Structure of DoxX family protein:
Amino acid sequence: MLHQPDIAKLLLRLSLGILILFHGIHKLIYGLNGVSAMLSAHGWPLFLSYGVYMGELIAPIFIILGLYARVASGILAFNMLTAIYLAYGFSLSTSKYGGLSWETPFLYLIMSILVILLGSGKYAVNSK
């Protein structure tokens, strides 16, 4: 019989990993110019832009597979905190639709924290 909490963990992992992976693939194809510009505007070293590949390409693959998903989700959570800070400055400004301007990266942050707290579940490469 299928264990519902483990199915929920799988669904969370797949949703988070697949959705953020699209962002990473986009940056792989089109480059890191936007990220580099934000880093430069804040006086941060440009080599940090390569961390996006870790957070948006490698970590999502690990999350999808359930391979060290807690660690990978920690990397992604740090990536999202950094993105929110660099792109939005944690301002309370809203989008034209009424939500916070940084609503999407915040949702990825929360999902990452949930994977850290809940773990991979039974349907994962390194399940326990």
Remarks:
- The radius of gyration is 15 Å.
